[in-house]
Structures are given as structure tokens and as C-alpha cells.
Request: fold
Amino acid sequence: MKNRMQGARRARIGLIALVVIAVSSMAQAKDKRDMVVMTQNLYLGSSLNAALGATTPQEFIIAVATIYGTVLFTDFPARAEAIADQIEAERPDLIGLQEVSLWTTTGPAPPGFDFLAILQQALDDRGLSYSVAAVSDNASIGPVPLAYPLCAVPEPLGACLVLLQDRDVILVNDDNPDLSVFNSQSGRYVAQAEVPTPVGVLSFDRGWASVDGTFEGKKFRFVNTHLEVEGNADVQEDQGREFLAGPAKASGAVIAVGDFNSAADGSTTTTYADLTKSYFDDAWSSDDPGYTCCQNSTLTNFPSGLGSAIDFVFTHGASGALGADVIGDAPFQMAPPLWPSDHAGVAATVRIH
Reply:
């Protein structure tokens, strides 16, 4: 009986010790001022290469119909549910999103898609509250005629139209009382890639969005961007230099996220090296390469096609990353589209010193 009482007493003492350690650890973690940030390219739903490679107006119109058919097939509302699941699991304080597309259709055509509204509704359905803190309005392409059979009537051409608007967006977690953001800004780069097409010159008008903020009283800047693809290396590298000289310049802590389209291994452009050699630290420090790009344009490939690291979380000044994870790199369902996006995302825990 005595041994049993002594055992119970030791158990109670052990439990109390565990509680004390847990409470102490929680207090310690709070004092360390850790914040979770995330970057995710949502994927506009189709490659645009068919339209960009068209040589006649007829080829361009056919290509646009093919592109929008692929957008319907890759089903952003379903993909948004998977991305919302990732956000629910990570609970980031700040999110940088790229290719937050707004597809608008008119006439007897399939419906359009507002990727931002769809994702926010999916988050709301999970009891999460993320509000828009900053937006970069980038390319606006169209309106362009949408051909039959996507348009319910074959004639006249132009009875149905489709317009693509590209945005980069910063979302902030409204449920974190220790987080406050202000001074929303956005801009476009001077360097832009222009592509001649049968209907005129198209530009993707890439840009950036930023907010300043405080986390538990500590100041920081958070910047989100999407640089030009590696096929326009000179333009992309110029944009990287503009990014460094402009929105990324701030005293104190700077956290930059985005799709930089420059491979971390240096195999494509110099942008990654230019950003990290003297200013930014990459949150990714694992021996794993951290591949984030890319699945095929219809999101039907299996196994995964990720083979390049081009999506990053960077820190500068009075901030540093404790670790990072690739997210969205597994199929979310058994039937196409298999992947939440053609890019995986990155979530990182950042400490404001």
C-alpha cells in the first residue's frame, strides 16, 4: 500500500514537472518572436504558350479557346480546397500568393473564376480569417474572343469574350492579435518582357507588393513578388536588381517571398545568387534540394515533376529563419487535376530578433 502511494505521489510530481516544462517552453517560444510565413504560386490554370506562339489571328483565337478549356479542366475551386488545407495545417501569419488570376467571361460562355475570392471562401469555410493586405495588379490580357464550342454560339466571333488579369497578393492572418500590418504598397518593374502576337504586343507587367508591420512590437517589412521566367533572363535579372534596390530595402527586418523563377543551384539565371550573395539569406537550409517547380500544364503527371527550386522565403537584417518546409508536393486527389498547383509552396518559421 505504501509503495502504491509513493508511486502515485511520484506520478503526480512527474505530471506537475511536465506541465511546468510545457508552460515554460510556451512562454519561451513566445519570447522568441517566431512568425510563420508562406509563399504559394496558385497557377493560373494553363500554360499560355499556345497563344504566345501563334502566328496568325486564327491560330491565336484557337489557342485562347484551348487555354481556357485547360483552365476549366484544372479546376481551381477544387485546387483551392487543397491549398486551404495546407494553410489550415501551417497557420501562417503572412502569405505571399502569385498568379492570383481573375478570369472574366462574357456572353454564353463558361463562368469566370476569381481565384482570390474562391480561396478566401475556402479559408472561411475552415473557420480561418485571412484578409487582403496588399495587391500588385500585373498583366491584363484581353478581352479576347472565345471560340465555339466554349462559346455556345459559333457566330458571330466575339459573342463570347475572355479576359485574364494577373495579381500578386499578400494575405494576413486576422486571428493573430500580436500581428499588425500597415503601409500597403505595390509597384511594377521598369524591365518587362514583351511578346509580339498576331493581336498585338503582350506584356506580363510583373510587379511586387509589400506591407510594413509589427509582430509582438518588433518591426518588419514583408514583400511578395513574381519575377519573369528564365526564358527572358536579362529581364528577370534586371527585375531582381530593381527588387533589391526598391521594395526590399528597409531598415531592420525584411522578409521576402515569391516565385523568383531563378534556380537555387545557379543552373538558369544569376538572380538567385544576386539576391543571396550579400543581402538575403535563404530560409531553406536542408540537405534536401527543396524543389518547387513544376508539374505539367494540365496537372495530370505522375510521379511528381518537381525538379527545380525557384520559390523562396528570404530574410534580411533583424530576422532569420528557423526552418522551412515544402508544401503541396503531394497529389490531393486520385483523379486529375492531381496537384494543388504546378508549383509547390514553401512555409517557413521566421524569428524577429
Residues 1-11, 13-32 have pLDDT under 50 and may be disordered. The first helix runs from residue 2 to 31.
